[in-house]
Design a protein that fits this description.
Length: 286
């Protein structure tokens, strides 16, 4: 559910990368302030992007300062915090709670179960504070679980539901921007689900876990996945371009046009190398 919406650091100056990291550290600080040190374990790059996006759109007052933390006790880290950082921290915990529940359900993970139980009270408070967002996430995930339990191979339906889930968290206010933000989140949520299925395909097959891509023929898999990911990102980007953004626009465009592909390129190149080595081994054994 988390981790694919990231920055391409190689395409930016050190100063601009530092600003994005300051948003990240600000979100980390806000999560700890709201949910304690364990809450930081749920910190997501995806919600860092949401912080920057909403801060750029609504332009709330920024608070910048250098702070020490347990992870970086020697050199202080620059942090940027806005009103939207607090919102993203809440959405981070909302999604993390269900990620823990999903891990408990799929893998019978005791650790994930304990984490879900630990944050139960915090989740109930978020549910009261954000009924629209929590309802959207809950309904989408329940429908995803229903399809997965039935062994569905309808990857379009599963991705669409994942999009609805993330899209719900991208809308802090019911205003003129809400439909567009929803569409940005939906495109990214679809992308995240397909990327996760693509990355975990072989591990899921080995462990006997559900994955909608397991029945897809090997000779068409790569092309189908690349086309699907591209279409989903085109949807997110077309909505993104409708927003009146100026501040940190270069950071947001870097994530959407380049950064989200970091993991995909890494996975695909590694698989090509492995397939090539396996082919050489087969030839040598003839």
């Amino acid at each position: 559910m988390f981790g694919y919406i990231d920055l391409n650091t190689e395409a930016l100056s050190e100063e601009r990368v530092g600003r994005y990291k300051a948003y990240y550290c600000g979100l980390c600080k806000e999560i700890q302030d709201h949910f304690g040190r364990l809450g930081r374990l749920s910190l997501s790059n995806d919600m860092t992007f949401l912080t920057v996006l909403l801060s750029s759109l609504y332009e709330p007052r920024e608070e910048e300062e250098a702070q020490h933390c347990a992870l970086h006790p020697v050199k202080p880290r620059q942090t940027i915090v806005t009103e939207m950082t607090a919102y993203a921290a809440d959405m981070n915990l909302l999604l993390a709670y269900w990620k823990f529940q999903d891990g408990k359900r799929d893998d019978r993970s005791v650790v994930q179960g304990h984490m879900a139980a630990y944050f139960q009270d915090a989740y109930e408070a978020l549910k009261a504070k954000y009924p629209r967002q929590t309802s959207g996430v809950e309904k989408a995930l329940e429908n995803i679980w229903q399809l997965e339990d039935g062994g569905s191979t309808d990857i379009d339906a599963l991705c669409r539901l994942s999009g609805e889930m993330l899209g719900s968290t991208f809308v802090p206010r019911e205003d003129i921007f809400a439909p567009v933000l929803q569409r940005v989140g939906e495109g990214l949520g679809q992308f995240v689900y397909l990327m996760d299925a693509y990355e975990d395909r072989k591990a899921d097959k080995r462990k006997g876990r559900f994955n909608p891509l397991l029945t897809m023929p090997e000779d068409t898999l790569e092309d189908v996945v690349e086309y699907g990911l591209t279409t989903m990102m085109e949807s997110a980007c077309s909505a993104f371009r409708l927003l009146p953004l100026e501040k940190d626009l270069d950071l947001l465009e870097n994530v959407l046009y380049s950064g989200v592909w970091n993991r995909y390129v890494f996975i695909r190149e590694n698989r090509k190398k492995k397939d090539g080595k396996e082919g050489e081994a087969d030839e040598g054994s003839v």
